[in-house]
Amino acid sequence: MKLLFENWRGFLSEGRKLERHTTLISRRVVDAIKDNEVKDAFNVSGELEFQVDVGDIVQDLPNVRNLYVEMMAGDYVFAHAKYEFDLDATEEQRKTSDIIVNVILPVGYDDSVLSQLIPELKDSLRHELEHSTQPTDMLMKIQKQIPKGDIWKSLESAKSYYTDEAETKAHIAGFYKKAKMLKEPMAKVIDEELWNIYSTGLSRGYKEEDLDPIMGEIKELWYFYALQRYPHAEMEYER
User: Fold this and answer.
1) How far apart are CA 83 and CA 179, in angstroms?
2) Which own/partner contact pairs does 138-147 have at CB distance under 8 Å and 24+ positions apart?
3) Comparing C-alpha atoms, which of 165, 212, 218, 164 is closest to residue 193?
């Protein structure tokens, strides 16, 4: 098992920059969600789409252009971001890539729900910002293995997705941000996500004895990479 960083100092510097960008972008998104006009429009229709101006924040990220929020009504709180780029994009085409933030909130929500939303939002944004810095050929590996995006089409496709290099790096970067925000050990955040993955596999009809070896491989890889990239993660918290 080998994931090496050729330029360690540059890698750490880039990571810190993306951490800051994640915090700033999440604040913009949260401010928009708290806006009374946004609340009123959402409460009327139960859905809402709008752009959040983050141009000043991402101006030093050549592969991020715009950020959009898509809100939908639900009986729970959820946030998930997506990095959208042209498949097999050239360097020039990557400059037109956008981030889409999907948010599910109850109609008539108040600001108290944000304490549940923000950790997931920061985790997901940090994940997608990591993808924005990855080369297209790295991103395309999993796209070609799972072209229609159905991760759980088979056990092999689920394993391919969760152990993919681009996804491993993005997942761990997101978990690190979430752990700092929640002031929790990173291992706890990773284990909770592993349980979510396991539960999803069970809900898709797979048996425990088939899932167990795959989950073991994912956990081993994620822990290995997390300890390599963030050796002091358990002690660092975001104030």
Assistant:
1) 22
2) 138/165, 138/166, 139/85, 139/166, 140/87, 140/88, 141/165, 141/166, 142/166, 142/167, 143/87
3) 218
Residue 52: closest CA among 120, 113, 121: 121
- Closest C-alpha among 87, 168, 175, 75 to residue 124: 175
- Provide the token pair at 149: 């995006």
CB atoms within 10 A of CB 54: 19
- H or E segment to which residue 175 belongs: helix 165-182
CA distance 232 to 196: 25
Chain segment 53-85, per-residue pLDDT in tens: 999 999 999 999 999 999 999 999 999 999 999
4/52: higher pLDDT: 52
